Amino acid sequence: MGRLGRDVSEIGFGAWQIGADWGEVDEDEALATLHAAADAGVTFFDTADVYGDGRSERLVGRLRRERGGERILVATKMGRRAEQTVENYSPEHFRAWNDRSRENLGMDTLDLVQLHCPPTDLYFRPEVFADLDAMVAEGRIAAYGVSVERVEEALKAIEFPGVASVQIIFNPFRQRPARLFLDEAARRGVGVIVRVPLASGLLSGKYTRETTFAADDHRSYNRNGEAFDVGETFAGVPLEAGLDAVEELRPLVPQGASLAQLALRWILMHPGVSTVIPGARNPEQAAGNAAASDVPSLGDDAMARIAAVYEERIAPHVHQRW
Ligand SMILES: NC(=O)c1ccc[n+]([C@@H]2O[C@H](COP(=O)([O-])OP(=O)(O)OC[C@H]3O[C@@H](n4cnc5c(N)ncnc54)[C@H](OP(=O)(O)O)[C@@H]3O)[C@@H](O)[C@H]2O)c1
User: Fold this and answer.
1) What burial class does residue 100 get, using C-beta atoms within 10 Å of its C-beta: 0-12 exposed, 13-18 middle, 19+ buried?
2) N or C: which end of the chain has fewer CB within 10 A?
3) How far is residue 59 CA from its own chain's centroid?
């Protein structure tokens, strides 16, 4: 993980699903899912203070304790417990949010804290990054990073030498980071955490035009960006366009693999990526995602075809937006 100086599994785990916003996942199932990921070799777990208002952090904290002694790296996020103004990213709020996350996770020093998709203007406030340096010096956090919506925010963020990692949306339906950002991050030694790798499940190929989602699932209530950035739901791809494109990817799935694993393998084909954090709601999904590490590299023909499907069917919807 670049500047972080820690080794992590190339397939990590996204713990939003076991917090809230994806329909019901009960506590036993959530813990079994976390353990299935760890059993499969996952050592990087991404969470946030707002996922289920702390539920996700508490579950990840329990996993850490129950797997005592194993090298598990926990990345959490802060910044979304208040209205999204630059002023709210203050030293007082940072320390209050940090105290709460340390308690939820049961850790004195957090491994990695990411600013949770802050307003673009924040990247032009060096004093905020100086304060994060101070939090490292205080021993509250071992390192910090940012989670961004846009490629340009990522490029600005890594000008700050203390930024250890950038979390960004990157998948066969969101290819722009490959052209502009990944090489620059690698050159500067910044860790890259890839989120929404399955385009909220769209790239698993299991949905149809008839699929419905629970009312408390953001794939129902944020389809048009009603609650947060629309790019977080199906990676910003209109569902119908995504379903058509998925059918064109299906023939490329390697023997014995799944479409979800094809998507994860495509991401891992990019050397600038440090870890990919698919979300999972049950142990089978967690194990299946971790097994993408064993899927052979994709050939030039498959890579070219995925690029062409993106250009023809997806880029017009997303390329100039993020
Ligand atoms: N702003 C931010 O910083 C931010 C925003 C979004 C996400 N994240 C992080 O990124 C993580 C991953 O992104 P994401 O959860 O939004 O989307 P994702 O990983 O692209 O999609 C997750 C969904 O894909 C389906 N899925 C997962 N594994 C599968 C498998 N093996 N086979 C079939 N279907 C599978 C599940 O859908 P079903 O529920 O339909 O089964 C699951 O809920 C989150 O958990 C979170 O940690 C961060």
Assistant:
1) middle
2) C
3) 17
Distance 22 CA to ligand 1 centre (A): 9
Question: Are 74 and 38 within 8 A, CB to CB?
Answer: no
Distance CA 157, CA 68 (A): 34
Residue type, 81: R
Q: What is the pLDDT of residues 168-222, one digit of tens each?
A: 999 999 999 998 899 999 999 999 999 999 999 999 999 999 999 999 999 999 9
User: Is this prediction's pTM over 0.90?
Assistant: yes
Do residues 234 and 165 make contact, with C-beta atoms less than 8 angstroms apart? no
Q: Is the CB of 76 under 6 A from ligand 1?
A: no
What average pLDDT does this structure show over 74-82? Answer: 98
User: The tokens of 18 are what?
Assistant: 């076991």
In this structure, the residue with its CA closest to atom 15 of ligand 1 is 279
Q: Which residue has the tokens 């066969």?
A: 172
What residue spans define the domains of the chain?
Answer: 2-318
Q: Show the tokens assigned to 46.
A: 């991404």
Nearest-CA residue for ligand 1 atom 14 is: 196
Please indicate whether residue 33, judged by its CB atom, sits closer than 6 Å to ligand 1.
Answer: no
The CA distance from 31 to 23, in Å, is 16
Element (DSSP H or E) covering residue 244: helix 239-249
- What is the topology classification, in CATH, of domain 2-318? TIM Barrel (3.20.20)
CA of 89 to the centre of ligand 1 (A): 27
